[in-house]
Design brief:
It is a single chain. Helices cover 33% and strands 23% of the residues. It has 298 residues and is α/β, with parallel strands linked by helices. It has a single domain (65-297), classed as Alpha/Beta hydrolase fold, catalytic domain (Rossmann fold), CATH 3.40.50. The strands form 2 sheets. Strands 2-3-5-4-6-7-8-9 form an 8-stranded mixed beta sheet, with helices on both faces. Strand 4 (96-102), helix 2 (111-129) and strand 5 form a beta-alpha-beta unit. Belongs to the faeC family.
């Protein structure tokens, strides 16, 4: 029953991706001071014309803050928990960015702990960068993700955070490790209805995740997927040189470059001498890449 549901979801999603118009999407970059580089101009935002920049505030309110917490959303009539971090200093003068964090598949019963651990590991960078972190829990029995059940949950979580906190919808980013990275590629490069997609994310990061696992099956479809993407959505790729996914991530990097992504601009790539692991000390570099990005619906 579950396998049939997943197959139907993937088939329907593929048709939506093929049929939906690309739309007018673009990526903008915010001034460096927004991400802690330099000082804002005098009279910024409202006192002198031309100083304000684009924002999409959700004006949400009523959520607890600051710190780590557990929230729940209803998906297909079932409660689904997720882990949230709200930095000290919230509410801010401007709407806050949001990072959706997807964990890897660690085996039966591991998903809640994996989601909570990643939320906690990202919290130091969230505190420094002034953004919120939301970490969903996978529904699979082996700690992995099922698109038919989990993709709608991601949207419910984004909606819940936006309803209870003042989020800048133009600065929602995604990040995923391993199986979560496979899923994040699939979300961020397609256009679908009812789930987060390329219209949702300003940019995204991948740690030891690959295109061929979810986003383009069979792998020969990867060039077409990237060529048809509605925009060159910025992506940060990281992988250990001893990781079994290392050759595949290198191939992904080359595929992005061949499709028009630009190294150091819309594509960031980093490797390190380790295996299939995620290291929180890489998070500041990932956030430095993501922070200035803004998704525009022109």
């Amino acid at each position: 029953m579950l396998k049939a549901l997943i197959v139907r979801f993937i088939a329907a999603a593929s048709m939506l991706a093929a049929a939906a118009p690309a739309g007018a999407l673009s990526t903008a970059r915010l001034p460096g001071w927004v991400c802690g580089q330099g000082a804002p101009p005098l009279f910024f935002d409202g006192f002198e014309s031309g100083d304000a920049f684009h924002r999409e505030p959700s004006y949400g309110s009523g959520g607890a803050y600051p710190g780590a917490q557990t929230r729940s959303v209803a998906v297909f009539g079932q409660p689904r928990d997720y882990y949230l971090y709200v930095p000290t200093g919230y509410p801010f003068a401007a709407p806050a960015p949001l990072l959706l964090v997807l964990h890897g598949a660690g085996g039966a019963g591991t998903a809640p702990a994996a989601a909570q651990w990643l939320r906690d590991q990202w919290s130091a960078q969230a505190q420094a960068g002034g953004f919120l972190v939301a970490a969903p829990v996978a529904s699979g029995s082996q700690g992995s993700w099922y698109p038919a059940l989990d993709y709608p949950m991601f949207q419910a979580i984004l909606d819940d955070v936006a309803a209870h906190y003042n989020i800048d919808a133009s600065r929602i980013h995604g990040w995923g490790y391993s199986a979560g990275g496979h899923v994040m590629h699939d979300l961020a490069l397609r256009q679908r209805s009812g789930v987060p997609d390329i219209r949702t994310f300003a940019g995204y990061g991948i740690s030891a995740g690959v295109l061929q696992q979810w986003a383009c099956q069979p792998p020969a479809n990867c060039p077409a997927l990237l060529a048809q993407a509605a925009r060159k959505i910025p992506v940060d790729l990281r992988v250990g040189t001893q990781d079994y996914y290392y050759p595949a991530v290198q191939a992904d990097r080359d595929a992005f470059l061949a499709a028009g992504w630009n190294a150091g601009d819309t594509l960031s790539y980093g490797s390190f001498p380790e295996g299939h692991l995620v290291f929180p000390w890489h998070f500041p570099d990932t956030w430095q890449f993501l922070c200035p990005l803004q998704r525009r619906l022109d």
